[in-house]
Amino acid sequence: MKLSIITDLFTECRWWLLFWMFLAFLLGWLLKWFFSKDTDDCCNELEALKKKYKDLDTKYNQLLHKKTSKRIQTVPNTGNALGSKKQKAKSKTKQPSKKAVVTSPYTKLKKDNLQIIEGIGPKMDEVLKKHGIKTWSDLAGQTPSELRLLLDNENPKRYRIIDPTTWSDQAQLAVDGKWRELIALQKDLDTGKTNTVGGTDSKLEKMMQRMGLLKKWRQDDLKAIEGIGPKIAGLLKEQGITSWKALSQASVDTLKEVLHKAGPRFKLADPNTWPKQAQLADEGKWEELQEYQDFLNGGK
Predict the structure, then answer these.
(1) Number of domains in the chain
(2) 31-45, 62-76, 184-198: which has the minimum mean pLDDT?
(3) 240: domain range?
(4) Contact 259, 267 (CB under 8 A)
(5) pTM of the entire structure?
(6) In the beta sheet, which residues pair with residue 193?
(7) For the stretch 109-119, what's the b/e string if a residue is b when 16 or more beta carbons lie within 10 angstroms of its beta carbon?
(8) Inside any domain, residue 14
């Protein structure tokens, strides 16, 4: 009886309908699997193309930057007249003129040269350096009493007459580069002592002249003036201008008149700076005169 019930149920449900439903389900599943796989492949391929595009874009920008940089570097050498003129004009504005660059002759002095100090000779230079005083700064850091004690301990009899009172002050002026003040101080000293006799020569100035760093002229030698040679010096002396003081007091118009009367061979001479130079020479300001002359070109 049970078997007949199952047979009837199968007959009534039409088993072939169930079969086609199963096939439809299987076909749907296969289609879904196929298209899902194709979509994943497309996504993967799209990501790969995006990455490749990004790499190519980066490489393009790098090459473009490299090419632009190279072009900028080679522009000055392309022979472009306008660019060349601009570059020259720019360099002229940035570079100082040769006249503006003046090197003081005192820069050639070594800082361990203690003998520029009035009162210090070769032997005293050795004594000070033996006790650790090797530079101007070292000497400037000493007090007169400390220097006195050092000399007494070294040889009280031999160095008793040496007075180091002004050594520290002189050394400090050298450290500060105040050469004019140092020369003026030394001219008021007598071998470094404070009891001045007035008008003595400056040891530093004499040393610079021996080293060829400062010019030395005979008193009232007009050729010390930049722009004045033997011929012009003779012309000026014929007009009564025989000294530095007289030249410093002469007007530029007077000097031009002297040159004009002497003929065309002197027309290129320019006396505008001669009185000022002569005043510096008359006052013995040789370092200041030399600095001023370094700015000049034939006295102009």
Answers:
(1) 3
(2) 62-76
(3) 222-294
(4) yes
(5) 0.47
(6) 190
(7) beeeebebbbb
(8) no
